[in-house]
Amino acid sequence: MTFSDAITRVPQPFQPDIGVEVAGLFAAMPGSFRDLIEGTAGCSPYLAGLLRREANWISQLAERSADALRDEVIAQVRAASGSDAGDQFRQAKRRIALLTGLADLGGVWPLEDVTGALTDLADACVDRALKTLVAAEITRGKLPGLSEIDVDTAGGMSVLAMGKMGAGELNYSSDIDLICLFDETRFDPDDYHEARAALIRVTRRMTALLSDVTAEGYVFRTDLRLRPDASVTPVCIAMETAERYYESVGRTWERAAFIKARACAGDIKAGEAFLDRLTPFVWRKHLDFAAIEDAHDMRLRIRDHKGLGGKLVLDGHNMKLGQGGIREIEFFTQTRQIIAGGRDPSLRVRATVEGLDRLTQAGWISADVTTQLQANYRAHREVEHRLQMIGDAQTHDLPSGEDGFARLAAFMGTTSDALKLGLTERLTQTSQLTEAFFAPDAPEAPRDGAAEYLETWRSFPALRSPRAAEIFSRLFPDILRKLDAAAKPEEALQAFERFLGGLPAGVQVFSLFEANPQLTQLIVDICTASPDLAAYLSRNAQVLDAVLGGEFFSEWPMADGLSRDLSERLASLPDYEAQLDLARRWQKEWHFRIGVHQLRGLIPPETAAAQYADLAEAVLRALLPAVQGQFSSKHGEAPGRGACILAMGSLGVGRLSAKSDLDLIVIYDAQGVDASDGRRPLTTRAYFAKLTQALVTALSAPTAEGKLYEVDMRLRPSGQSGPVATSLEAFGSYQLEQAWLWEHMALTRARPIAGDAGMIAAIEAVRAQVLTQPRDAAKVAAEGQEMRRRLVDAGRTGSTWDVKNGPGGVQDIELFAQALALQARDIGRQTADQIAAAVSAGLLSTADGEALSRAHVAFGRVTQAGRLLLPGTLDLDALGEGGRAMLLRDLAAEDLLVLGDFLEKCRKTARRVIDQTFAAMGADGKGA
């Protein structure tokens, strides 16, 4: 398809005589092309002049595509050299301006191709100018240590394209915003100042080469003011200096600016490495809703400075900075990216249209809003381009009179009335969509007494900064209204006060609440139900980020999905300490999700227990390779088949609570290898002992992000006196020949969860061999009874609400079920399965089995609630009203008195069944 065939629209000539005159230069071209020329020249004096000057060149469109002409011009720029390079750049600018103008006006290129062609030209001109000038400095000996081979990387100097140039979105008459940096490591420290002076000269000469107006015109007006502290720093600075600036005093607007930053010229690799190092500055690891207020304040300052506030008036309206304009859409998009891009790398894109698409895909913006804003953005950019095409002016202002609107309307192929109506609709719609995000409705008036609370809380760390206090004062009326609606408002308020007092800082958290009002209800729910969870939130408020993520209410991914997710995240970080911190943040967010889901009744307690276990298993499966990788870097790869983690206790049966420790045994199989082969080799036994210690440290050592889990390894062979890691051979022989009965009981709940698949199968085989051997029922009963006596002697007597301890409690039922599993020669892990196996083996009656299972389920639900709601044993006096309601809901009880009676009956029945069954086993060697 030829250029003429691709034309879909043409301007209407505002000055027909000029249009006819210029179109006459193209008599040999097709009619559609001449119509485009006539309309273009009749509306734009600037383009009319270019058409006269470049008539022969642009006539090539009769046979060549616009893409081919564009690529040819860019290639010529990149090959430009000598003293006339500036003239070559200016000719290229004229031709690209003419080509993009016609391709835009004729509908041949979409917006992205138009802005892309202008950006490609800018990239080529900056890169060629820079390298030409650096080469001259090297020739003069002004860049110490550099030679001709350093010209291709511009002697370590890199230019970052910012703003629209960085995003490939240059408008028709754009300035170009650049930051010029140099890699100071390319120079000897003694030569630093001489090299810097030379590169400052290069930057100034490059700016002049591009910006100065000559007989041939200009290339691009160049702006270097986005560099760090531009009022006092030179035009080219060292990368290390820039990094220190952004890390120490970088502001939100600079973070937003770097969303679009791109290495465009010079040493591209060094520039990209610099941008990678700035990632933690631009993209915060937690949701950053404080950026909303920063961006809103910036919008208002721009409007005040430019005098753009007040009611929408089309005459003279600024399409870029004014109400409902281009900048509003860009700010809206970039601020959303800043908020969530630290957690979601898919949002880290430069272009505005693509950014809106990504935000919709991630669930931050509705598809309708994105469609509307993208359509308005494209239309705004077309208007902007035509305003600039008229006279090659860097303007964004609509005309101030009817004559000007008539010209603009003709240029856009419409009428003045239709143009004005469309502009008003789009500007108003954009303003409404973006203003609601940046400046939500004013808060309701606070009730009586609110001021006294605020004054009392001024001393809290979270409210010490004026900004935090200001945001919270806007939030508090709504929070207070929700607290007043609680069953016991004063109790709820006291719990909220404890939460607020525990926050170390407030701006980010309060901004999060202000942008997401639904979170305040969640906080109130937590404060009224779980003081312990509220205290946890005070210390780890960043986990609220997870509530706003797309996965918080999605289907549970199970241990396999969680493990894959964490493994992929860890693999993306080369630094071990960063991996440990990431694992902690990741675990906290999923852990918080489980608690919230249980608190709100979205999942039953049994599901919560299984999910807590899935989470711990996923952490172990993902973290073990990371620990092994770090350890092997010093001591070599693990001998043989490496280490395997055997989960014991509650993790083994896949049922944890909110505060469970992890009972683990580490087993290894060196397959006859005596030592590792690393830089610092270790004997096999020492290797796996130290590897196990490293694993325990990775799980339990506090970092800046806290700890993952406490680890208990006392169930390993020989207990605390045995080695921390056990060989597979030693584990098997110990279990078959030396282990105590209680250790076999513990083995009934064991489950290998991480390590070599062959080892996992071998450990399972040992477990099955041990558990299926015949037992002396009287001995099993005697030892079971002795264990029960020791627990009571240790003070574990239990009570109505301490359902774990004492005769007939959780621990008693589980030990009993384990003993019965041994006697039944069953390999099941779950308590319910072990009880069912005992019934099948004739060790228990069906009725007694059902009674035990019923008691175990009820006690498990109380335990799950207690461990979520309170730091220690369930204490009704310390339990909030919401916590009591949750407990009654989970156990389907009418009130706490009825529930207490039910639990006592369960305990009494369980104790009777256990006492009678052990007695029968001891008397006749079998059981009931």
Q: What this model shows, in words?
A:
The chain contains 41 helices and ten strands. Strands 1, 2, 3, 4 and 5 form a five-stranded mixed β-sheet that branches. Strands 6, 7, 8, 9 and 10 form a five-stranded mixed β-sheet that branches. Strand 7, helix 32 and strand 8 form a beta-alpha-beta unit. Helix 19 crosses helix 20. The chain is elongated. 46% of the residues are buried.
Explain briefly what this protein structure is.
By secondary structure, this protein is mainly alpha-helical. 60% of the residues lie in helices and 5% in strands.
Helix tally equals 41
- Strand proportion, as a percent range, falls in under 5%
Average predicted confidence as pLDDT: 89
- Unreliable stretches: none
Q: Structural class given helices, strands, pairing?
A: mainly alpha
Percentage of residues in helical conformation: 55-70%
Radius of gyration: 36 Å
The count of DSSP E runs of length 2 or more, i.e. the number of strands, is 10
Coarse morphology: elongated
Biggest beta-sheet profile = 5 strands, mixed
* Distance between the amino and carboxyl termini: 91 Å
Features of the shown structure:
41 helices; 928 residues; 5% strand; five-stranded mixed β-sheet; single chain; mainly alpha
Layout of strands and helices, then pairs:
Elements: H1 3-6, H2 16-23, H3 31-41, H4 45-53, H5 55-58, H6 66-78, H7 85-105, H8 111-139, E1 157-161, H9 163-166, E2 176-182, H10 192-211, E3 222-223, E4 236-238, H11 239-249, H12 252-257, E5 262-266, H13 268-277, H14 279-282, H15 290-306, H16 326-340, H17 352-361, H18 367-391, H19 402-411, H20 416-438, H21 450-456, H22 466-484, H23 489-502, H24 507-515, H25 518-529, H26 531-539, H27 544-548, H28 558-571, H29 576-599, H30 605-635, E6 642-647, H31 649-652, E7 662-669, H32 684-700, E8 711-712, E9 725-727, H33 728-737, H34 741-747, E10 751-754, H35 757-771, H36 777-793, H37 810-824, H38 831-840, H39 846-869, H40 881-890, H41 896-924
Helix pairs in contact: 2-3, 6-7, 6-8, 7-8, 8-10, 15-16, 15-24, 16-17, 17-18, 18-20, 19-20, 22-24, 23-25, 23-26, 25-40, 28-29, 28-30, 29-30, 30-32, 30-39, 33-35, 34-37, 36-37, 36-41, 37-38, 38-39, 39-40, 39-41
